[in-house]
Structures are given as C-alpha cells and as structure tokens.
Task: structure prediction
Amino acid sequence: MKKIPLTLALAASLTALAPAAAETPLTYNRVNLNETAQTEVDNDLLVAVMTARAEGRDAATPADQVNRAIDWAVNMVRSVPEIKVQTLGYSTSPIYDKNEIRGWRVSQSIRLESRDNRALGDLVARMQSELHLQSLGYEVSDEQRRRHLDGLTDTALARFQTRAQNIAKALGRKGFRIVQLHVNDSQQAPVPMVRGVMMEAAKADFSVAPARIEGGTQTMTISVNGEVELSDD
Result:
C-alpha cells in the first residue's frame, strides 16, 4: 500500500474543513430578548356542542333515530337567525359482548354559535329533550381578536426595542441590530362550562330551564422574542 505523507494528509484535511468554517462566521455581543403585551378581551361568542345518540340490535334503527333527531334540531335552529349551526362527525360503532357484536351505537353532533347568549341558552334548553349537551362555553370571535391584534403587536414591539436599547446603553454600546424576531399570537381555548348547565339531561316530558350564562373575559397576549446584536454604530 502506498503511504501518503503525514504533512500532505493533514494539509488536505485542513483544506476540506476551511469552507465549512468560512460558512459559520463567528458572532459576538448577541442578546436574546422576550417581551409581551396583554389586554382583557370580552368573550363575545357562545358555542354549544350537542349530540344525538342511539343504540339498537341492528345499525339501521339507531341511525334512523339519530338522523331524525339531528334533522329536528337543525330545523329548529334555522328558525332563529341569530344562531349558526354546523353538523359535526357522524359515527357508527359496534357494541361487543364476549367478542360478539350484540348491537350498534350511532351518534352525531352539531355545533351552535351565537353572540346572543339568551337566544342560544333558550334553544339549548329546548333541545335537551332530544339531544345531550356535550359542551357549552365562550370564545373570543375572530373579529373581536383582530380588533386588538395590531395595537398589542405595536406595544410588544415597542417594548422589545426599548429593552434592547436600554441593554445596549448599559453595556456601553450605541445601538443594536435585530438578528431575528418572532411575533406570537396566543390563541385562547374556549372557556369551559358556564354555571347551571345540565350536561346529560335525560329525555323527559318537562322542559329544561335555560342555563345561566356569563361571558366574562379572556386575556389576549402578544409575545415578541428574538435576538439582537449590540453595535457601536
């Protein structure tokens, strides 16, 4: 085997590493920062999810019951223009007993939303004679969120720049350059269950009293985080 001189092999290795090193410039005087801006936003959208369920020895009978219940509910919602309705997932699943199918379970849900909490609360109470109330909670509508988005973003960015300038001054530097910047908008989850809700109202001849509904507020937060490089410019 032909031997390669050690000095030649070492020189070749250093030459191969040189481009990689050149692609990763050294950085100095960089600082990571994070700032936020918050405000309380009114919950203005009430959302309810209601479910029709039925079981039977064959799949056709419970499917027919669920279909009729959902059709009844959708037609009822259409009589109230202040409320929007959307049908959700439809499922049919077997019921087992000792590894044998003894029946079928069918379910489908609908999603109701409205800014009129009284109208939606009354409708939910009426529907509980046929459907189960799966969840009821408040959300901040997209329109409401966007009304606050730009103002909070401006405030968070201003705080970020002020803090970066103060750090530069404290360290004897004239200014800074932004290396990277991320702006994050927190998406709040719906407020779970308001007081007075009957979650699993059984079918009965009497009507269910309307749920007590209180909107309240949510905290909307804009966070700005990034990296700055201190400079003497």
